[in-house]
Amino acid sequence: MTTPTIGQPIRRIDGRKKVTGAAHYAADWHPPGLCYAYGVFSTVARGTIRSIDVRDARRVPGVVDIFHHDHFPALFRVPQRGGGFNAILEASITDEHRLPFEDDKVYYAGQFVALVVADTYEHAREAAYRVRVDYLKETPLTSLEQGVARNGTQDGGRGHQRGDAAAAFDSAARRVDVVYRTPVETHNPMEMHATTAQWRDGGLHLYEATQGVTVHRNTIARVFGLDPERVVVEAPFIGSGFGSKLFIWPHSIAAAAVSREVGRPVKLLVPRAQMFTTTGHRPQTEQRLRLATDADGKLVSLRHESISTQAFVDNFTENCGGMSKSLYGCANVLVSHHTTRVHQGAPTSMRAPGAAPGLFALESAVDEMALAASLDPLEFRLRNISTRDESSNLPWSSNHLREAIVQGADAFGWRKRDARVGMMRDGDEVIGMGMAACSWDAMRTPARARVMLRADGTVEVTCAVQDIGTGTYTVVAQTVADLTGVSIAKIDVKLADSAMPAAPLSGGSWATASVMPAVAAATRNAIGQLTSYAVAGKGAFAGAKAEEVQFADGALVYRGKHVPFGDVLKELRLGLAIGDGATGGAPEGKVSFRSFGAHFVEVRFDPGISHLRVSRVVSAIDVGKIVNPLTARNQVEGAIVMGIGMALFEATDYDPHSGLPANNSFAEYLVPVHADQPDINVILLDYPDLALNEFGVRGIGEIGITGLAAAVANAVFHATGKRVRDLPITVEKVMRT
Length: 737
Known about the structure:
Helix content: 10-25%
């Protein structure tokens, strides 16, 4: 009998390649004749290029050419995104809508203004440093506050309204009206953005650091006016992206363009400093929360109104209120989003876009509301859990938030919490305990896959989905192993080549829920083809009816005969049996899909040395069926650490006069390190959501960061009595009177 692999803690099948250096990333490819490109980046945030002097740069040995707005090929624009999830496989999407070197205007500091191509990386970099650019400078808008004051706001869409929130607020027994702020955060994945571009016979081949080879292929094809079949994008390994590698950025287009111009392969690596400018970030937000309850602590009004920054080269809106419209039951709700333009690079999706900053604000406000209602924060949430998605008036497909709160609280020891501020101590340290709910959309998009049963007894799976470090290689292998009984060691998974069956972006926590059904369909179709071959041939199954033949433990089974599939193919002198599978998006109109959970955080503050740390986290997560507890828990743990970074460390600072990012390096952009890691306990509830797909699986990559910053902030308040409403929570803010 086939031994199940789904639900088992299988080690990552790609792990050995990564730890031995056999895994190739975008910058690891060296085609013959390779040139290197290095950018010249604007040193002003707003202005016009008056002149570019390349004479000294051309004196550097090995320089092939230097490109800029007066010397660059004409390219085509990409239409604005549209069509929703069901059109994702055919989509072409850019985050920065302006084409590189399109004109002489500068819209943000760090914008590409020239590009040097040379025979070595060192020569290209030296020449780039010698390019002289003269600007007509203008005063930039460098923050949300400046944008609002000088440029006003625009409606960002994605709003929601039901009931009369204002009237219900005014007549409520208890009210809270507070403003929360979050800074710009920069993704900073370990692998920097890179493109290796090569033109062959009129077609383009890219090795790209991308979270979506299919969409990247479609987009680059439109930019160059090519049939998408003439473009191949490969990304077999990604050193994470956190959303910054979802869509195409100027460097990828520029690398492909100059490669065609010089007639040689070109590699372009974005320096770490420019990953703070030209490859996206989480935008700055300001969020006003107005909550009100009746005398029993039940919510009667909820307003969540946000403003986020966007660039002059895009139209991105941070969907801060996306969770607020339905996480809690409330008859009177208003959610609105506005944007204001500033002279910064284009913001983009960053792990749990909208929900991460949005739930910091909402879950902090919920704690303040609980305090105003004289209720324990846990009890307040339990009283107000939504029993259905009131924003769409649909039942939840699955919602175990109540159980997540109860299980998490028990594991954390919430009952031992002394509700009085600053009263829990351990030696010199004051202990604070805080909690917050977490939530993220459960999504599924169209996907395709191919499975081949080979005569040598192995199975090959191909799919254009990416493994961005989340364990997709392993989950795909588990899917095939579960359906066939073939050992994982005999399953060869090949991913992230746009020539393979099209697959969605690896982002938004939808890849696993989308790809597993496609792989399963392909597996069944491959078995079906094998069976049809077997019953039609002259071998052991001749004369049998296809419906009478079973497949188990890697073999065809019929009336006592048990023949491994490889032997069946060999007997028929066939090399393989092939199955293609395709699945659509999530069913619409019957239920609402969402994942839920709860974070419990302990912080410790030593006032004598002004030291604040997160010491313990317990998170209970409801994300449907757990395919692989090992990789799933790892995903949540990573998101928790990133949430600690959001809460205590991360902020991209811009010089208010020049608009230049002031801390654009790992020396000055603070993130959690090993010394900052708390004790983490992740509880995975494991309730299959069979309405979303046959496996009951939902995504898990985003939810762990949502609400975490609020849980930290709530714990800090419990320890110190200081309610910090603007991230990050620094010691200076805690000490401020």
